[in-house]
Amino acid sequence: MHPRLATDLAQLPELLGTVGERAIDILDRLPDQPVVPPLRLPDPEPLPERGAGLTEALEEFTQAWAPLLSASAGPRYLGFVTGGVTPAALAGDWLTAAADQNPTSALDDAAPELERRTIGWLRELFGLGAAHQGAFVSGATMSNTVGLAIAREWLGDRAGASVAEEGTAPLGRVQVLSGSPHSSIAKGLSMLGLGRAALVHVPVLQGREAVDLAALERALTQVDGPCVVVANAGTVNTVDFDDLRAIAALRERYDFWLHVDAAFGGFASLSLNHEHLVAGLDAADSICIDLHKWLNVPYDSAVQFTRHPELQVRVFQNAAAYLGPLGETPDHVHLTPENSRRLRALAAWFTLRAYGRDGHREIVQRNIACAHALGQAIKTISGLCLLAPVRLNVVCFTLAEYPTADRLADLAEALKHEAFLTPTTYAGVPALRAAFSNWRTTETDVHRLTKALIDSLNHAAPSL
């Protein structure tokens, strides 16, 4: 064994204790460190010929790189839709790395069964019936893509062919209808060989991001043959929801696969005042839900559900002698593009076991309350205005006068010490959005952001 490896192995208990101390330092700084630090990158170095050992590597990371990382796990990182990591999820993730399991095959251990049981808990959490089978994937983009891949096979069935075996030629021109599709839908269609041009944008309701049902039905009448409808349970800008039950009811008259992108909006099922927004989710043929958002487990973790596991296996089955037969309960290697990956379920298992439905409901409801509090505060701040109602956990707002992209970028830059917000454009207007999904966030953080907004406007750069 290499002497550095031998030394680190002999000292591993002490070294892991030091790593734990460094991790606690990172977590302890989250409430007060700059949310986005100034970048002063260290000079590049060539690959070391002789390693320094874990102690020196840890020291270099602590001094040179840790101070340059954003507080993305903290309470005022409100960009994108970014959760943090609950204490239990952190423990689960550490143990995931320590055990280093590949749960895609059941030949050697119980990891695949742990994943199945965690999927079962998640199915209950989101109010889905037993017909929905699930699999872990890396994030919402992969979850949407897997759902669309299964839909592609369903389209092949309707054409009397298997796309998995014969390719896409039998499909002809595919149409995928959606009101406000996430960018990952077009990306998935590109990867699947269906093409971005397959995506048909259906008109939305006036002043909304939800699809106009009458317009959707008109579009369905113009489709020659079966198609795919992508519905939204929580849009990115304003967390708007399509009427899932009404869309599902259209299948009585039209032949289409219903995929629901519920990446973070699916968690509305945990809020007693908002669960009606996801009524009808169970009727979907496939569903995307991103766990490293509102479940507050580490990147990368999402889940994909479908009512058609037989089609899923047809797409993703992996034939190799060393894997053994498919069997009645296919291994995870036959459910997603990955042949190997980490035990993603363990962090989710830990946080669900530790805090249960009521603990995660409290996180969701507190985040929603924080979003509404910020929305109310923005209404009182001279120079700002809301662009849309606060429906769930995202606040979309802009400058009351001359809201250009440059001026919004300057405002976001001025806030970075206290909070990180991401830019967007809504209804043609440049804007900022604050997304609340971190388990640490409280109204105290809303007050700090409100004060930072007021101070930034009062001491504005010339562009503001």
Describe it.
The chain is of the alpha/beta class. The protein folds into 2 domains: 3-71; 90-350, Aspartate Aminotransferase, domain 2 (3-Layer(aba) Sandwich), CATH 3.40.640. The chain is 41% helix and 12% strand. It has 15 helices and 11 strands. It has helices at 3-10, 12-29, 54-65, 87-99, 111-125, 140-158, 163-166, 183-191, 213-221, 244-249, 291-294, 309-316, 345-380, 405-415, 443-458; strands at residues 133-137, 176-178, 199-201, 227-232, 256-261, 286-290, 302-306, 384-386, 394-399, 422-426, 429-435. Strands 1-7-6-5-4-2-3 form a 7-stranded mixed sheet, sandwiched between helices. A 4-stranded antiparallel sheet has the order 8-9-11-10. A hairpin with a 7-residue loop joins β8 (384-386) and β9. The longest helix has 36 residues, at 345-380. The radius of gyration is 24 Å and the shape is globular. The N and C termini lie far apart (61 Å).
Secondary structure layout plus pairing:
Blueprint: H1 3-10, H2 12-29, H3 54-65, H4 87-99, H5 111-125, E1 133-137, H6 140-158, H7 163-166, E2 176-178, H8 183-191, E3 199-201, H9 213-221, E4 227-232, H10 244-249, E5 256-261, E6 286-290, H11 291-294, E7 302-306, H12 309-316, H13 345-380, E8 384-386, E9 394-399, H14 405-415, E10 422-426, E11 429-435, H15 443-458
Parallel strand pairs: 2-3, 2-4, 4-5, 5-6
Antiparallel strand pairs: 1-7, 6-7, 8-9, 9-11, 10-11
Helix pairs in contact: 4-13, 5-13, 6-8, 6-12, 13-15
GO biological process, one term: carboxylic acid metabolic process
InterPro entries: Aromatic_deC (IPR010977), PyrdxlP-dep_de-COase (IPR002129), PyrdxlP-dep_Trfase (IPR015424), PyrdxlP-dep_Trfase_major (IPR015421), PyrdxlP-dep_Trfase_small (IPR015422)
Cofactor: pyridoxal 5'-phosphate
